[in-house]
Amino acid sequence: MLPITKSMPKEMLPVGTKPVIHYVVEEAIKAGIDDILIITGKGKRAIEDYFDRNFELEYYLRERGKERELKLVREISEMVDIYYVRQKKPLGLGDAILHAEKHVNGEPFAVLLGDDIIMSERPGIGQLVEVYDRFKAPVLGVETVEWADVEKYGIVDVENIENGLYLVRDLVEKPKKEEAPSNVAIVGRYVLTPEVFDALREVKPDKRGEIQLTDALRILVKGGASMYARIIEGRRYDVGTPEGWLKANMELGRVFGLVG
What we know:
Elements: E1 14-15, E2 18-19, H1 20-30, E3 35-40, H2 45-51, H3 55-63, H4 67-77, E4 81-86, H5 93-98, H6 101-104, E5 109-112, E6 116-119, H7 124-135, E7 139-144, E8 154-162, E9 165-173, E10 184-192, H8 195-202, H9 213-222, E11 228-231, E12 235-238, H10 242-255
Parallel strand pairs: 3-4, 7-11
Antiparallel strand pairs: 1-2, 5-10, 6-12, 7-10, 8-9, 9-11
């Protein structure tokens, strides 16, 4: 998404009238999650500012009688309790999750990537929570992708349990098409248990120096832990790519009446 993300976090890119991160936080809230930790990094202060109060703006809107706009900006800062931890180096998703260990305090927790929007009748992460409540084991959000695209995702080797629900037998990060065990791809939503933190500490950084969450999940599965994958019912937009961001604006723009 360069050059725009040189000065703006991709999570703050607008889709319709809201930034991407707003949709992600709303999804968590609709699923009953009321305690959110956002792992940020260098150049992402705009995320914190967005969810904070802006008294000067509120005063300006109140003085000019813009009650609708005032209500909107106040609601953003009152949505939910949000905390922040900064990832000092870009060492991958696994490292980012390690920064949450103290915050989750030994409890199961949800992970939502900040550049995926999922529009659905039932919150995407809530669908995974339902599976966790049933099996008390980690759950991965997945979808089937084109075989030509498997090298863009973490891919799972699965055993079908019932329609849209699988038992995970193995995982591999961004395999070549001919080496992929399936075309069932992990799509940025997880419900995890605290055991993942010890597994993450075992993971060796990849050739880019990043700690991959997929590798830690594989350690758990190979160690005998149960893990499930659930196809998320809904429409996913990968707004971390120009194509996905444009598609989200066009399709959601029509839904919200912003595009004819």
